[in-house]
Amino acid sequence: MTNYTIVGQPVRRVDGFEKVSGRIHYCVDMAEPGMLCARTLRSPHPHARLAALDTRQAEALPGVEAVVTAADIRGTNRHGIERPDQPVLVPVGERVKMIGDPVAAVAARTEEIAEEALGLIRAEYEPLPGVFTPQDALAPGAPHLHDDAPGNLISQYTSGRGDVAQGFAEADAVVEGTFVLPRQEQAYLEVEGGLATIDSAGVITVYAGSQRPVFIRKSIHLALGFPEHKVRSISANTGGGFGGKADVSMHALAALLAHKTRKPVKLVWTREESFLMHPKRHPFWIRAKLGAKRDGTFTALEAEMISDGGAYASHSLIVVFAACSYLPGPYDIPHLQISGRSAYTNNPISGACRGYGQPQAVTALESLIDWLARDLEIDPAEIRLKNALELGDAPGCPRVVLDSPPTLPLTIREALAAAGELPPPSGPGKKTGRGLGCAMPIFDISTHDTADMKGVGASVEVFPDGTALVRSGVCEIGSGLSTVLAQVAAEELGLRLGQVSVLCGNTESTPDAGPIVASRQAYCSGNAVRLAVADVRARILEVASDILHADEGTLELAGGMVRVRGNGHAIPLGEVTKVCHRTGVNLLGSAWFSGSHAPAGHTFMTTVADVEVDEETGRVRVLKMVNAHDVGQALNPLNVKGQLIGAAAWGVGYALYEEMRASDGKLLTPTLTEYITPMSLDGPEEWQAVIVEDPYPTGPYGAKGVGEHGTNTTPVAILNAIFHATGVRVTEMPATPERLLRALKQQRQRV
Amino acid sequence: MTNYTIVGQPVRRVDGFEKVSGRIHYCVDMAEPGMLCARTLRSPHPHARLAALDTRQAEALPGVEAVVTAADIRGTNRHGIERPDQPVLVPVGERVKMIGDPVAAVAARTEEIAEEALGLIRAEYEPLPGVFTPQDALAPGAPHLHDDAPGNLISQYTSGRGDVAQGFAEADAVVEGTFVLPRQEQAYLEVEGGLATIDSAGVITVYAGSQRPVFIRKSIHLALGFPEHKVRSISANTGGGFGGKADVSMHALAALLAHKTRKPVKLVWTREESFLMHPKRHPFWIRAKLGAKRDGTFTALEAEMISDGGAYASHSLIVVFAACSYLPGPYDIPHLQISGRSAYTNNPISGACRGYGQPQAVTALESLIDWLARDLEIDPAEIRLKNALELGDAPGCPRVVLDSPPTLPLTIREALAAAGELPPPSGPGKKTGRGLGCAMPIFDISTHDTADMKGVGASVEVFPDGTALVRSGVCEIGSGLSTVLAQVAAEELGLRLGQVSVLCGNTESTPDAGPIVASRQAYCSGNAVRLAVADVRARILEVASDILHADEGTLELAGGMVRVRGNGHAIPLGEVTKVCHRTGVNLLGSAWFSGSHAPAGHTFMTTVADVEVDEETGRVRVLKMVNAHDVGQALNPLNVKGQLIGAAAWGVGYALYEEMRASDGKLLTPTLTEYITPMSLDGPEEWQAVIVEDPYPTGPYGAKGVGEHGTNTTPVAILNAIFHATGVRVTEMPATPERLLRALKQQRQRV
């Protein structure tokens, strides 16, 4: 399909061996001589006024080197992705707004001393009434949580076109449902943690996982009042992010303690702190209604949704925007009326989580489509094909511009072809069913103004020996992006993958590349690295053209050589770069990719899930999961398959197992013991990732984003398979055996 | 004199407080958890065959983690600035060529264990006859030291013009002398040392002082066979270099041990190792002859010189070239014949040392001029003014192009004016005298091909808060360059100095800027940083022009604001950069300065030294030292004065105290106890640095180089002052009391 050498090849990850061999260092492995250990004192109340704080006893404990409170902070003491509404430390006299809000932190010679010191801090609270659902939060008389916000509404979004009343009037069938979608935990293997150091010039460096080092730098600058040129954020190895590391976690507190003690300070969260503190997938309540004509043609979609933002805004504005705007999906629906709101509560924070509002929206729409298909006695694939967007249609999502024939039909056909026949039940009392889930997922290119995501830098340095180093501000959070960037540089320079290193996510050494979120970085940084190579490549070819007495246009880089096409003349790249080095030719290529025609790219995908439902136990076994995704051009098919299969595992969790429950602001599933994620035995018995390639004109080699998309379609494919197997319309997730048994019982009672 | 705000101001060094307060970390302070300590086994023989090496007992010593020999090395096992002739470790069967040549190294849990292990390594040598003067080395039948060199000659250089025989025939007076110039030690406060680490991807990082991290990277790559993309060299704080840290020192061995142990390895040399192993100022023997007409007009200069390169070439090629080519100095001499040679011996290595061949040449020429002036009864200043180069003259140095009226006369007049009257002797038996030393020192811009010094990169990142970070590959070795680069960036961005940080000398984070040698970096990196700011400044002004509704040409950056000239409208820079950050405007400015019209810049300077000689003790007291230097434009007058006064102290040492003596290849002055450098009480009682400013068209703000130049003229000014006080022609340096007493006695006997 391609003429590339390394791009498009299923190469192993450049950091794979380090990772599987356990050689790589994560935050818990970090150490510095003379390092202190830190712990954080957190509010036990979901809503209370911090009345008093006495740290004297803790300060007097031998081995304690510093106790910090809000009084130590010279900056705004606020951080937040979309609004600076979250305190680094809650000041005395102000309010804690969630269980876990930090009020003090201790740095001590050992973690045990730091923990003991926490017990010696006297914090007095005046408890206040809390609010624990967004519906309550927006009701009149609800406690007003943020003084500087007009009310508890974080954001609302409304969009529409046509006239939905007319649309439903034209419909021959209308289905409606209210979907209750749970809070989902990212449950990355590596908890939040890291190390802050201060050098003799007062430069603070925070070594810790994140999804955007530049945001960490900026947040520390604003919250603590250190100028940005004196703050560095280095995010080398991060054991999973999935949106949960897009915000500030331990970074600011570690920096504050390092600044106060002038020593290195390590601060690693416990799993309980991680679960409690980082933003998770928003719980959503979606009421949605879809109408269609007898032939299946959709006439109208109406939806209203509300999401629980938790105590601080984090990504709540854009997540509700994403859920609303992507709700109409890959279909041509003439009449639309969609609105959504998010609200502050005294619950744990909601924020970015793989899929970012889309899984909730897709679950609602794709469930309705299957119900409608059943009512109209149309095949689920047929009804989707019938309504699929075509070139010239105006998508319901205002951010998407259809610039080439949509590939939804292709992904539906390929997914079904790969899925083969639905297997019969394995025994009595069991039923099998097949479900489809389709979507038009997006990948953000320049995205919203609020997120400072426009523009992506990269540099590629070619060394005199002809090897190369890619510098990219993107963090390697496990997505395999460093491998993809190495492939791009190797491809463009004609090198082997092992001749290229990648230095990632480090404000000291790498150009800003924006966050690794929104499935954007293979596209954005892939393009930036390609441009950076082009910059240095042009200079190398100019020198090579002199050496080889050949026109630059006839030269190519391949197999470690600079070759003249046609006459067979060639010289090793390392010989040319040695000449460059000696004669003062700049071997550092730089680029700034500032996006393309659209703020967001889009693509199409289809999931087919086959399940078997045990009607006696309510247990659902996922037999097969096929994800067919139009990736434009797979830069690394192995990695693409990994993303699709990983997303399928998330889908299994979201559909069947995962629910981060809270009551009065307190997590009822505070550790991995209570919070159930699918294990390897819970996954589909057969996974298939089908790569569909329809090159994207502005993508690097035609690539589109892929990272998160499988989380959009896989959960609802499972729900639809349950529906097809049993007729049960699951509207509250996860579809646990208890819930399913109850639904099956109700169904039997109805019959 | 200037319209600049920060450039030209005598600002304190940006790293001054850290340094004087002892907060800064040098190599001995470095530590990493689990770090090993290393020691090196060195040859006790100046020339011998390494017959056998048995490391088994050392390896068995508890606490020893690795012993390395040449057998562990997969690369060329060679390094060297100009020729790769120096082994990282001498292999069994091959020859050690100097005392101190390394044959093995140990990494152990403590330095004491490593030292003990050295004693357990059995190294057997077959001693060979050595050669200890360059004259002997070039004599027929001398032991041939380097198998892959045709003989012991490292290099020779010859230049001439006109006909010296005719020139001397036209002369009314001719003087001749043979000057014996000693080996001089840089004696920096910080010895060589540092730390090598290896990460899980196999990337080796060496944290250690150097004068060019890129050269260290390249040397490790070649010598050890690691690809360049897997080697990083970080040279943060270096306590003095003066040329002595331009070569590889402990870097390769530390890298080898880290690679073998996969642990951090610290290797710090003792003062004895430092004295023994790093290249020092070349001993020179210069026979020179100068003729002039009765009116003082020079007619001919003839010289022949030979220098002792020691066991390995290091910088010997270019140092002898520099000494020869700069010998004719700032004078118009029609007939020239100059030749020079350097040779291998079994002595410690000679290499780069502040002045780089010029102090030796200047000492010879400027001595002859004063002798000639005395013979012709012409004032020493007058004879220099009479012969000073004028615009249109062809300098004797082929690398210098006179592109503006030479400023030698100006520096002579300003130096003499500043010096005032020569004081009378302080008592009986004492005599006072005044000496002049003049030179046309150079600063290398793109310099010789062999040194890979063409092209200088820099980047300047402006942060959303309006502060900035300069990234430069130059090492801060104590010259104050980081302050100068911060000044340039602050000047161009209209910031305060404290709003700019500088990250230096680090192949991980900074663009290559070539070595900090040859007084080149204020010029080269000053220009590169200025260009890097211009790159980002243009984008910032474009955005500001939109915000302020003003033409970009009317905007200026000053006082932290972007101002419209004329109408008083202004906006803080930080507001504009926040808009840039949000809208995706690249805030990283990059530049590559690839030199200017000439390979070397030149300037002029004059030293006036007043001394008092005690004829009874032979002791010389330097009463006053005035250095008048045309610096083009002083970027930081305080720093320029520091350089001139520092160089004056070197001159005192070179003229009166310092001599690194060796006998049969063994240092007779192996530590700071035996090797005498001037202390603060030995310096001139009055120092004056006179800044002459004749802007250099291509220099940043007109700046010229200045770093080393005072070492050229200050020694001979002292010798000439002794001559004027006593009539003694010092031809062997240093002019110790013993030598001076002997000369005074011979003089009395002649009278």
Detail the topology: elements first, then pairings.
The structure is a homodimer of 751-residue chains.
Chain A: H1 16-20, E1 36-42, E2 48-54, H2 56-60, E3 64-68, E4 78-79, E5 86-87, E6 95-96, E7 102-108, H3 111-120, E8 122-127, H4 134-137, E9 153-161, H5 164-170, E10 173-181, E11 193-198, E12 204-208, H6 213-224, E13 231-234, H7 251-261, E14 265-268, H8 271-277, E15 284-292, E16 298-310, H9 316-326, E17 335-344, H10 358-376, H11 380-387, H12 408-419, E18 430-439, E19 442-444, E20 456-462, E21 468-472, H13 481-493, E22 500-504, H14 521-548, E23 555-558, E24 561-564, E25 570-572, H15 573-583, E26 588-593, E27 600-602, E28 605-614, E29 620-630, H16 637-657, E30 662-663, E31 666-667, E32 686-692, H17 710-726, H18 737-750
Parallel strand pairs in A: 1-14, 12-13, 16-17, 21-22, 29-32
Antiparallel strand pairs in A: 1-7, 2-6, 2-8, 3-7, 4-5, 9-17, 10-15, 11-12, 11-14, 15-16, 18-28, 19-27, 20-21, 20-26, 23-24, 24-25, 28-29, 30-31
